[in-house]
Write a structure and sequence with these properties.
alpha+beta, Alpha-Beta Plaits, 4-stranded antiparallel β-sheet, elongated, 5-stranded antiparallel β-sheet
């Protein structure tokens, strides 16, 4: 079993997210990460969905997504051929004595300190899951108070792209 990342272009309208997440729930698939945001076309949103399973699970997910009316296009993103990023905010205990160590860890991971109080430091980090998990592992000894992660966003490297124009070109070439 491995993590698969699926990118889907969907209609940007009420109920689309509910229908997509409902599809996963009905099939008993767990969503590891789900992010949604508008594309350059405000009527279209991009969903980035991370799921863990074998190739049969992935194939079933893609087929079921393609059947939904709100879904324009779906594609699995090959991990070797895409960029994956996530944003993390983490609030850590940091006394005067431990603060230099926390700041050093943040610096090593090219993170930004976005808030400091007498007893805490809040760090913002961007990167792939492995980098963020490594940061959290080191910060856990300081005492993590609060944590928020955005979920994964991903795009393919190079010229290959999942866009409305590419979907229209593909449909026109089949006609």
């Amino acid at each position: 079993m491995r993590q698969h990342v699926v990118s889907a272009l969907v209609e940007n309208r009420a109920g689309t997210l509910s229908r997509v997440s409902g599809l996963f729930a009905r099939r008993g698939f767990n969503i590891d990460s789900l992010t949604v945001g508008e594309t350059e076309d405000r009527s279209v949103s991009r969903m980035t969905i991370a799921v863990t399973g074998d190739d049969a699970v992935l194939e079933q997910i893609v087929k079921q997504l393609e059947k939904l009316v709100d879904v324009i296009a779906v594609r699995e993103l090959d991990s070797a051929l895409c960029l994956r990023r996530e944003i993390l905010l983490v609030k850590v205990r940091a006394s005067e004595k431990t603060r230099p160590g926390v700041l050093q860890i943040a610096n090593i991971f090219r993170s930004r300190v976005v808030d400091v109080s007498r007893t805490t430091v809040t760090i913002e980090a961007t990167g792939d899951m492995e980098k963020l998990n490594g940061l959290l592992m080191l910060l856990s000894s300081q005492g993590i108070i609060e944590l928020a992660r955005t979920g994964m966003v991903a795009l393919e490297r190079g010229a290959r792209a999942l866009t409305i124009q590419s979907v229209k070109r593909k449909a026109a070439s089949k006609a």
